Amino acid sequence: HVMRGSMLFSALIALASAEPSLYFKEQFEDGDSWTTRWVESSHRSDYGEFVLTPGKFYGDPEKDKGLQTSQDARFYSSSARFEPFTNQGKTLVIQFTVKHEQNIDCGGGYIKLFPADLDQADMHGDSKYNIMFGPDICGPGTKKVHVIINYKGKNHLINKDVRCKDDEYTHLYTLILNPDNTYEVKIDNKKVESGSLEEDWDILPPKKVKDPEAVKPDDWDERERVEDPEDKKPEDWDRPENIADPDAKKPEDWDNEMDGEWEPPMVSNPDYKGEWKPRKIDNPDYKGKWVHPEIDNPEYSADSEIYRFDSIGVIGLDLWQVKSGTIFDNFLITDDATLAEEVGNETWGQTKDPEKKMKVSQEEQERKKLEAEEMGRKEQTKDEPEDEEEEEKEEELEDLEEEEETGAEEEEEETDSIKDEL
């Protein structure tokens, strides 16, 4: 019985340890109460304001409510605190949704993960962070997913180009850091990039460096092909590029005294062979391209815990946007990638199709409205010429009446003058 009880206790401990840790979850489901959890920085006095809204189109009017940037050409700085933890020996998963419903031209859509000692009231662009992750768009040239990792006080950008989504719909962004120094980036619950933290970032010095003592020998010949020293230029090779036209005839009316001495025009020489060059042959002394020998880098030191952060305690939105309107929602920090995927499917996965349907419906209504307005303008334009014609006819009648009145007056004056003469 003692043995059986001990085994059961061990099984319960193992089960408990296997339970995923949920460090932070924010879906803005309690109205304006989010303002008690999120702290706006006062480092600047002109930060843009976040508002809670599902946006102009959505899949669910309540579930899709998130923090939206509301003022153009502003910096934004707001953060939320949670119980501090370390990811040592554990997987770290960061996940959230971003919707650029304003068709963003230039601005950030990323989050920052800070150590617990961050002064939230003074958070700003230079505040030390652990990880910066998420989309960044600026014009047609910058459409990337930032994955920046702080290692020993220095920020390191990923060496790969991870493309972000640039449409107006909601997208799910997920970063997974594993305790074996590997990582994975997912967009909409699909892997878009993965690899090694050591290989895909310049975090550690290179393992090998060029040997500073090694120098290419002076007689090292890297030419694969050389001119044949036995090849000689043919004696009849040199021909002029242009010659006098043999078919040209001096005009009969040509006057040497008046026109000068006649010379035939020049034409391309069909026998011209161009500049002679000796043929190429394989270089018998060719040794191949000289490769600078490498040695072990004395500055390199392996680190099996690049992924590790001793203190993680704040998530923040610290960014700049030219055109506002981005909505952030469904924040999740956990140590379980499967849980994150399930939460993504329960949130973004449930509302993405209805959201798109609503957007398409709005565009269709807008299209019909514009068509109706265009038809109205055309009808109005069609009526205008008829009105102008009627006005012209009325003016002509008035002119005729005036002419008739003038003629009658003139006739009366002539009659009166005749009477006077008589």
UniProtKB/TrEMBL annotation:
Highest taxon above the source species: Eukaryota
Assembly and binders: Monomer.
Start-end of Acidic residues biased regions: 384-415
Species lineage: Eukaryota, Metazoa, Chordata, Craniata, Vertebrata
Record protein name field: Calreticulin
Gene name for this UniProt entry: LOC109871903
Signal peptide from the UniProt entry: 1-18
Residue pairs linked by disulfide bridges in the UniProt entry: 106-138
The UniProt record lists the keyword Repeat: yes
Pfam families recorded: Calreticulin
Subcellular localization, as worded in the UniProt entry: Cell surface; Cytoplasm, Cytosol; Cytoplasmic vesicle, Secretory vesicle, Cortical granule; Endoplasmic reticulum lumen
Originating organism: Oncorhynchus kisutch (Coho salmon)
Region (Disordered): 203-278, 343-422
Keywords in alphabetical order: Acetylation, Calcium, Chaperone, Cytoplasm, Cytoplasmic vesicle, Disulfide bond, Endoplasmic reticulum, Extracellular matrix, Lectin, Metal-binding, Repeat, Sarcoplasmic reticulum, Secreted, Signal, Zinc
Residues annotated to bind an alpha-D-glucoside: 110, 112, 129, 136, 318
